[in-house]
Amino acid sequence: MEKPTHTQFPVHDLVARRWSPRAFDERPVGADLLRTLFEAARWAPSSNNEQPWRFIMASKYDHEPEWKRLFDCLAEGNRRWAFRAPVLILSVASINFEDDGKPNRHAFHDTGLAAENLVLQATACGLAAHQMAGFDVEKARVDLRIPLGYEPVAMIAVGHPGDPAVLPERLRERELRPRNRRPIHEWTFLGHWENPIA
């Protein structure tokens, strides 16, 4: 299922088509297709070209115990639909610069850029991707053996789009609801904070 938005101004088709569905078809995603998603993430911009992102992924069909370990970190609300997603990915940020060990205050930003590249590439490949903040960070840190100096950022469910009819009623309603965003003038300012852009 596609759910392109109606934008106020023209944007690239991939931006208009990208959204976060909860309905997944359970068929596997091929390894080459997954490599394509990570290749897109690889070319994200980052402060000082630090490339602070790391990804921990597992396919339900090729790495079932690892997939279950990722799945078990999800909040209950996300488990209700993500169990159909054939691939789960956790984005992780290296929080210190490699050269001098100082804190990299842009690490989460840059990891988010890599994740956005990944989900846009998923959209271009006809896949669905849904990023989630709802997961147990400490459980992920321990169960996925994330070392010191790295922070779990977000979980991402990836797979082929599914039929919204498989979702519980409340989630199905959300899935079918039109997409919306705040208008530009509410969050963009000209020159200083109190001057909304026209």
Structural account:
The protein is of the alpha+beta class and 198 residues long. It has a single domain (13-186), classed as NADH Oxidase. 33% of the residues lie in helices and 17% in strands. It is built from seven helices and five strands; from the N terminus they run H-E-H-E-H-H-E-H-E-H-E-H. The chain has helices at residues 13-17, 31-42, 64-71, 76-82, 107-124, 137-143, 169-176; strands at residues 24-25, 53-59, 87-94, 128-132, 150-161. Strands 1, 2, 3, 4 and 5 form a five-stranded antiparallel sheet that branches. Helix 2 (31-42) packs across helix 5 (107-124). The model has no long low-confidence stretch (mean pLDDT 95).
Question: How do the strands and helices of this protein lay out in sequence?
Answer:
Layout: H1 13-17, E1 24-25, H2 31-42, E2 53-59, H3 64-71, H4 76-82, E3 87-94, H5 107-124, E4 128-132, H6 137-143, E5 150-161, H7 169-176
Antiparallel strand pairs: 1-5, 2-3, 3-5, 4-5
Helix pairs in contact: 2-5
Would you summarize the structure shown here?
Helix content is 33%, strand content 17%.
Average pLDDT reading: 95
Tell me the fraction of residues in β-strands, as a range: 15-25%
Oligomer: single chain
**Structural Rg:** 18 Å
Main β-sheet: number of strands, strand sense, barrel status? 5 strands, antiparallel
pLDDT < 50 stretches? none
The number of distinct structural domains comes to 1
- In the CATH hierarchy, the architecture is 3-Layer(aba) Sandwich
Give the fraction of residues assigned to helices.
Answer: 25-40%
| Structural class by sheet pairing and helices | alpha+beta
Shape field: globular
Relevant CATH superfamily:
NADH Oxidase
Helix segment tally: 7
